Amino acid sequence: xKNSQILVTGGAGFIGSSLVKFLLEQRNHVTxxxxxxxxxxxxxxxxxxxxxxxxxxTSISDLxxxxxKFDTMFHLAADPEVRLTxxxxxxxxxxxxxxxxxxxxxxxxxxxxxxxxxxxxxxxxDAKVIPTPESYPCxxxxxxxxxxxxxxxxxxxxxxxxxxxxxxxxxxxxxxxSTTHGIVFDMIRKLKHNxxxxxxxxxxxxNKSYLYIDDCISGVIHLVDKTDSDFDIYNLGSDxxxxxxxxxxxxxxxxxYSNVKKNFTGGIEGGRGWVGDVKEMLLDISKIKxxxxxxxxxxxxAIRKALGSIVNNN
Length: 314
Prior knowledge:
Elements: E1 5-9, H1 14-25, E2 29-34, E3 50-54, H2 60-63, E4 69-75, H3 84-87, H4 89-104, E5 111-120, H5 143-162, E6 165-171, E7 173-175, H6 183-193, E8 197-200, E9 207-208, E10 210-212, H7 213-226, E11 231-236, E12 242-243, H8 244-255, E13 261-264, H9 286-290, H10 299-312
Parallel strand pairs: 1-2, 1-4, 2-3, 4-5, 5-6, 6-11, 7-10, 8-13
Antiparallel strand pairs: 9-12
Helix pairs in contact: 1-7, 4-5, 6-8, 8-10
């Protein structure tokens, strides 16, 4: 991917800004479309090849600000908070499903060759097969997972109808410096507020896979560059899992906290941290590995590196 015209929705966010930085390093011409409601990680990225458009995918008038020709469209804009399943389902519907529909409605009106969508492991729900392959039936247990699956289906329909290439990427939990949610971010925030007692959602036995941001970006780019299917779905994660209890111990030890009372909430429905929390997740990544990609860090190393990055930059 060099000297290409690229659109990145959600390009100011955690994953999006890292993708934008890489694309610019490869001498691409990048347009970022973001409403900046969550974060702005583009302040330190300076390039004549970067165009930033402030706009919302739920606004048809804002979408008219976009250029009419792209080689590749990376659709990362979304409401990423699984816990909104109960407290604000309207946000998930609007910012995930409606936003994606509005973006896809541009396809007949503009020139674009490839649509890349960052989906989630949450589409599988409580999978009985671990590691979980792409062929496993998707039965989400959260509205967030359901919204991402709906977006996958819409993208498949539009790509087939208008003869566009589509790449769906189901991500494990991505960690790194600029994240604004997730277990590492939440634990650090809580410890700063109260270094004597730490609330931990669930029973601590939640066992999941984590992917460091650099591995995430390399995997996404690899799938666009090295695969050539008209439409395909790939899992992207690491080969290992780590429990919440193990993550908490790493954070306490690395940050030098001692005598901290660990208050496990006990969770719901057998120890989940919240409604819709998938208690065990490990993606089968043999499909992407067979195409020549491997993660550099396992889940333990990804957590440790993310922790170090966040601490050293705050």
